[in-house]
Design goal:
With 288 residues, the chain is an alpha/beta fold. The chain has helices at residues 213-218, 223-238, 243-253, 258-268; strands at residues 18-19, 24-25, 30-31, 36-37, 42-43, 48-49, 54-55, 60-61, 65-67, 72-73, 78-81, 99-101, 106-107, 112-114, 123-125, 130-131, 136-137, 142-143, 148-149, 154-155, 160-161, 166-167, 172-173, 178-179, 184-185, 190-191, 199-202, 207-211. It starts with 17 loop residues before the first strand and ends in a 20-residue tail after the last helix. The relative contact order is 0.08.
């Protein structure tokens, strides 16, 4: 994916692009090689579409939006819409508010993704993500890679979703919250605090149900590392310690694997606080 400092000359449409005659392409847009643009698509000013993207019918891509290669965007999706904030007064007070999207993402029907409200500081979406029908991503969000955001999920502004996270359908995430790496959020969940990495969160009010064992296995996390994370979970949620004391105990007692270090760093940098209510999980849960 091209960075904002390496943009191709505006107005460059590759001759290999397949563009339906009903599509409206702004003269300054950039269209890469082998791009397929379906009927009634609108590509706005300043937009960059990378190679091998497939743009479905009735899609709108607008503003300072940069797409990498191999993205698939389905019917009715709006990529790069204006920030949904009363602070946004148009280009006059928020010039060059970018939305930067990586490679091989799938945006299913009627997804909406807003541009940043911060001048010259764009929203960013990584690679190989799946955004299902009617999911919404507000301004200033950061989405990692290999995530799944399922049907009708709403991410408020400034939300961070880390790599390999999963968010169940109809869930809502409050602004400034973080969904940690390989965490799983169950359907219809209201997130108002950070979900630590590798954890399973569900319910309203939201509770932690233990480790996301299925996700850890799918991502081939070693069984011994899973056992360390299980011990970290017990210290964090079942020792009746304060967050600061739990972090100290984890650092003192557990082997400093990459995953344990990642968890500790997440906890130390949580600004909204973490979900601290738990549901008793099965003690005999198989970690192998």
């Amino acid at each position: 994916m091209e960075s904002t400092n390496q943009r191709r000359t505006l107005g460059n449409i590759s001759p290999s692009a397949r563009i339906h005659h009903t599509a409206l392409i702004h003269p300054t847009a950039v269209i890469g090689k082998n791009v397929e643009i379906s009927p009634y698509v609108i590509i706005g000013e300043k937009t960059v579409i990378g190679d091998n993207c497939i743009i479905g019918p009735h899609v709108n891509i607008d503003g300072w939006t940069i797409l990498g290669s191999g993205n698939k965007i389905s019917r009715g999706t709006y990529i790069g819409c204006d920030p949904e904030s009363p602070k946004y007064k148009g280009e006059s007070n928020c010039k060059n508010n970018y939305l930067i999207i990586g490679d091989d993402n799938i945006f299913r029907e009627n997804v909406t993704v807003c541009r940043s409200i911060k001048q010259d500081e764009g929203d960013r979406i990584g690679n190989n993500n799946l955004f299902m029908d009617y999911s919404h991503i507000a301004q200033n969000c950061r989405i990692g890679s290999n995530t799944v955001v399922t049907n009708c999920v709403s991410l408020a502004s400034n939300v961070v979703v880390e790599d390999y996270a999963r968010i169940g359908g109809l869930s809502m995430v409050q602004q400034y919250c973080r969904i940690g790496k390989m965490a799983m959020v169950g359907a219809c969940t209201k997130i108002v605090k950070d979900v630590p990495p590798f954890m399973l969160a569900d319910g309203n009010p939201t509770s932690i149900y233990g480790l996301n064992i299925v996700g850890l296995r799918r991502n081939e996390i070693d069984p011994e590392v899973r056992r360390l994370l299980k011990k970290a979970y017990r210290i964090l949620y079942r020792s009746n310690l304060s967050l600061e004391s739990a972090i100290e105990r984890i650092e003192k007692e557990l082997e400093a694997s990459y995953e344990v270090k990642y968890l500790v760093n997440f906890l130390k940098n949580s600004k909204r606080g973490i979900i601290n209510q738990i549901i008793e999980e099965d003690e005999d849960q198989d970690l192998d």
